[in-house]
Amino acid sequence: MSQNKADLLQGTLDLLILKSLQNEPMHGFGISLRIQQMSKEMLTVEQGSLYPALYRLEDQGWIKSEWGVSENNRKAKFYSLTTSGRKQLTTEEQSWAKLSTAINLVLGNA
Amino acid sequence: MKLLSQFLNLFRRRKLETEMQAEILHHLAEQTRRNEAAGMPLAEAYYTAERQFGNVASVQEQAREGRTWAWLEQSFKDLRFAGRVLAKQRVFTLIAVLTLSVGIGASSAILGVIRAHVLDPVPGHDEDRLVELYGETAFALERRFIATSYYVGHQAKQMPEVFDKTAIFFPTATEVSDGDFFQTINGASVDGGFFDFLGTPPLLGRWLNEEDVRAATRENIVISYKWWQTRFGGDPAVIGRQIRVREDQEVMRTIVGVMPPEFRFPTGMTDYWQTLVVKASELAKPGSPNYRVFGRLAPGVTVEKAQAALNVLHTNMTQEFESDPTISNISKPSGRALKLRPLMEFFVEPKVRHSVWVVAVAAVVVLLIVCTNLALLQLARGEARKSEIAVRVALGAGRGRILRQLLIESLLLAAGGGCGGLLLAHWLRQLGDALLPATAPALQAAGIDGAAAIWTFAVAGICGILFGFFPAWRAGDLQPGQVLKNTSQTASSGVGHRWIQRGLVMGQVALAMLLLCAAGLLLRSMVSLMKMDRGFDTTGLVEIRPLVSTSGRNAEQRAALTRDLLERFAALPGTTSATMSASGLGRRYLRDDKPDPVLMWETAVTVGTVDYFQTLKLRLKAGRWFGPQDDQKGAKTVVLDADAAEAMWPGQSAIGKRFIQQAGKSGEKSTDEYEVIGVVENMRSSTLENDAMLVRNLYVPFSRSAGMGREFYIRSNLAPAALKASVERICKEVIPGARQPIVFWIEQRLYDSLAPRRMMLWSALALAGTGLFLSMLGVFGVQLHAVTGRTKEIGIRMALGADRESVTRMVLGQGMAIVGIGAAVGTLGALMLAGVMGSLLYGVDARDPATFLVVPLLLAAVASLACWLPARRAAKVDPMVALRAE
Question: Is the ipTM of this structure higher than 0.95?
Answer without folding.
Answer: no
